Amino acid sequence: YGLVYLKECLAISLHACLYLFGWLPFGKPKPVSEEKEAPIVLIAGLWGNRATLFPLYWRLRKAGFNNIHLLRLSPTLRSLDKIAQNLQPQLEDICRRSNATPLQLVGLGAGALAIRYLIHQGLQIPIARCIGVGAAYQGTQLAVFAPSQIGAQLKYPSDFLMRLKTGDIPLSTLTTALDQFTLPPLQRALPNNATQ
Q1: Which of 93, 92, 119 is nearest to 107 (CA)?
Q2: 3-state secondary structure (DSSP) of residue 106
Q3: Alpha-carbon dihedral sign for residues 142, 148, 150, 154
Q4: pLDDT higher than threshold 70 for residue 23
Q5: Contact 183/177 with Cβ under 8 angstroms?
Q6: How far is CA 151 from the centre of its chain?
Q7: Residues of the chain with pLDDT > 70: what percent?
């Protein structure tokens, strides 16, 4: 386990370094590729920004995906529903620029929860699939460290999260036994009312 924990420490250190680059202004959104490739939208978690998504972005580019968009959650001191409402116009803009091609959404942590909230509220854009990475779908005991209103919504067990439904949109979840943020670990699974 020593090597695994060393890798985890290195990954957290890389995340912290990349986070600083996320404060730098990004250029205007690039034009969407003319190819028929469905847009992949990567949404950072509560403690991340677009720069912390760079390692995943580079791996997807290396695998041959070109139409990739990086989004962050803001403002993170509000409730999850307010954060999600700020995310919605960005998703609608990507959808409009890609001629309504169904989006492939990948949310990390609270990014996945924001996606799930928008779907529950009836997000009116075409979605091919949603993937949540390391999301506390039923809440987490570590929510006491989350800022402001979102901490109360994510506190395990979370009635707010348990009520969210995803309808017919395919929703997958990826997690690892080493996830330090979702406690207890069983709460990484989607509730029974969500499509898996």
Answers
A1: 119
A2: strand
A3: positive
A4: no
A5: no
A6: 17
A7: 76
pLDDT digits (tens, 9 = 90+) for 103-114: 999 998 888 889
CA angle 109-113-115, nearest 5°?
115
CA 48: distance to chain centroid? 10
Peptide bond into 157 cis (omega under 30): yes
Q: Are 70 and 57 in contact (CB under 8 A)?
A: yes
| Other Cβ atoms within 10 Å of 170 Cβ, number | 12
| Calpha distance 67→39 (Å, rounded) | 5
Who's near 173: CB < 8 A, 6+ residues apart? 112, 131, 132, 133, 135, 137, 188, 189, 190, 196
Task: State pLDDT tens for residues 114-140.
Answer: 998 898 888 889 998 899 888 877 777
Distance CA 6, CA 43 (A): 26
Judge whether 142 and 181 are in contact, CB under 8 Å.
Answer: yes
DSSP state of 38: P
What DSSP element (H or E) covers 151? helix 148-154
